[in-house]
Amino acid sequence: MSDSSAKTSEPAARPPKKPSPFELLSAFTQVSLASFGGALPWSRRMIVERKRWMTNDEFNETFALSQFLPGPNTINFSVVFGSRFGGVLGAVLALLGLVGPPLVVVLVLGVLYERYGDIDTLGHILAGVAAAAAGLLVASVAKMAAPMFMRRWNSGPAVALLAFAGVALMHWPLPYVFIGLAPLSIICAWFRR
Are residue 164 and residue 77 in the same domain, yes or no? Predict the structure, then answer.
């Protein structure tokens, strides 16, 4: 498939208006309240598909940076994204929107679980929620990877497949896979320029 047909499948470029501080807080609050089992699918949907604040490639690059930083990926992403569009205030509001509402919900659910956690039906419900969360994660990864695999060949798909093989199939520790593949990825990107 050519580059032009791959570009038409991704959402239009971000509009010239950057999100206001309230929009950052609101968007990440919505993401946090909608995301059960992980915020990545909902973050991507909000930022790339609904608000169009980033293109698919920009989201992937920013999320890749967030994965490389220590700490939870989506929290790192909220800080990087918020600071990109709103400076320090944007980073704080995006982070607050992402972690504030779930903190309150988890505290309330913790109290309820302590009281009613012995009920067998609750275990079945939690197993179903875990399966749904895994499905959302697989769908989100497929959406993020599609543009990379649809373009003419480059090193990205090969490095992604090597990472998958190392972690999922060979069961090597993730830091070692990163240490091994990061130089290869940088060299491939350098020669592609």
Answer: no
